[in-house]
Amino acid sequence: MKTLTIVALSLAAAPLAAQTGAVAGIGTIYTVAKGNLIKAAEQMSEENYSFKATPEVRSFGQLVGHVANANYMFCSMALGEKSPSSTDFEKTTAKAALVQGLKDSFTYCDKAYAISDAAATADVDLFGMKTNKIGVLSFNSGHDMEHYGNMVTYFRLKGMVPPSSQRGM
Description:
The protein is mainly α.
C-alpha cells in the first residue's frame, strides 16, 4: 500500500514538476536521502547488518541492498539505458560490499538527477503506468526516503541515533 501511495503521489507531481522545471527540486530531496542512507549504511555495525526488526521484514543489510538495486533500476529508466549493475545487492551480506554498492548506485543516479528539464519530460512506463522521467526521479527519491525511515527504526531499536538526528550534536 505504501508503494502504491508513493507511485500515486509521484505521478501526480510529475506534470507540475515538468511545468516548473523542478528536476533540481527533486534533486534536493534525493541529496538529503543519499546523505542519510550512506551515513546509515556506514554507521551500522557489521554484526547488525543481519538484524531484522521482526522476522517478516528485511534485515538492515537487505534494506541497503534493496535501495542500491532500486536506485539502479529507477535511474537507468530515467537515463533511458540498461542498468550497469548485474549484482543483486539484496543477496549480498558483507557490509563493505553493500556500502560500496550503495555508494556506486548513488554515483550512477547522480547522472540521472543531472538531466535537463527538457529530457526529464520524456514519457516512460513506470510499473505499467505512464509518467515522465521526472515522475521516475520523484518516485526514486520517495522510495529512498521510505527506506531511510525503515533504517531509522532499526537504529532506534539498537539504541543508536540515526544520521538525520545527529545534526547539532
